[in-house]
Design brief:
About 80% of the residues lie in helices and about 0% in strands. By secondary structure, it is mostly helical. Helix 9 packs across helix 10.
């Protein structure tokens, strides 16, 4: 299937379901904003307590609401009714524990990607900034990039650094889509051990990594719309991207791992 066909089928399946899926995305973002604000209000944005509790919430709470979007889109793709209360199902054991592990794997992959990209610039940044940016994510680099852009002259090293950060921003969504495929496999095989989930993900994606990359990058235009709408476009961008990846997953799964259908 061509990349444009994934997107066309995604739009077709989302017809009549955009509002519900957008509401799930809004719930995910709202939970992050509200909980983050509460923690900041109690401890202060620069405190150790804020950093620890917000990190804990990120690894053990926020991601579940993203998975609820995955589940909602997954059910719509199978012409099944999707309910907001389905989010509560994701907190049940042993599913929740497995999803926590998959989320931590996603975080580790992001750290590795960022560290590989940042480490060569340790002379420009200093190792403290390298590790700080790696742990806090690509968004934490934005203030530093803004500071560089405001300088009268930009060195070749700084310009190369900006370029690498732009490339990393394009590659990070690939990790998100791989994470989504792991979660979809878990939805398909709720009793399967994680070792089998990882093995099946590599079987499914063998020979399809570039196609997945192409599908992810084909949404660059939509990402620009998100920036132009101050993030409001996320409510429609995420369901569109997630549904397209779900269709991709179902197609390659059917070809490579028919036993799990």
């Amino acid at each position: 299937m061509q990349l444009a066909m994934y997107r066309a089928k995604a739009r077709q399946l989302l017809k009549g379901n955009w509002q519900k899926m957008a509401a799930l995305v809004a719930l995910w973002l709202l939970v992050e904003i509200v909980v983050d604000s509460m923690i900041e209000g109690v401890f202060g944005a620069s405190s150790f307590g804020y950093q620890m509790l917000n990190t804990f919430a990120n690894y053990f709470l926020y991601f579940i609401f993203l998975n609820a979007v995955f589940l909602g889109v997954y059910k719509v793709s199978q012409n099944k009714p999707s309910y907001y209360r389905d989010t509560l199902l994701l907190f049940r054991q042993p599913l929740y524990t497995h999803l926590v592990v998959l989320n931590l794997v996603q975080q580790v992959l992001n750290w590795i990607l960022l560290l590989i990209g940042l480490a060569p610039f340790y002379r420009l940044l200093g190792w403290n900034r390298v590790f700080q940016f790696t742990f806090n994510g690509l968004d934490s680099v934005a203030p530093y990039l803004l500071n560089i852009s405001q300088q009268g002259t930009i060195s070749e090293t700084a310009l190369l650094f900006v370029t690498v950060m732009l490339v990393l921003s394009l590659l990070q969504p690939v990790i998100l889509t791989y994470y989504q495929i792991l979660v979809l496999l878990k939805f398909d095989l709720p009793q399967a051990p994680l070792k089998l989930i990882f093995s099946l993900s590599w079987v499914i994606l063998k020979g399809n990594w570039l196609k997945l990359l192409g599908l992810t990058l084909s949404f660059i235009g939509w990402e620009l719309v998100v920036y132009m709408t101050a993030g409001l476009g996320l409510l429609w961008f995420y369901p569109y991207l997630i549904m397209s990846v779900t269709i991709f997953y179902q197609e390659v799964k059917a070809k490579k791992v028919q036993v799990i259908q």
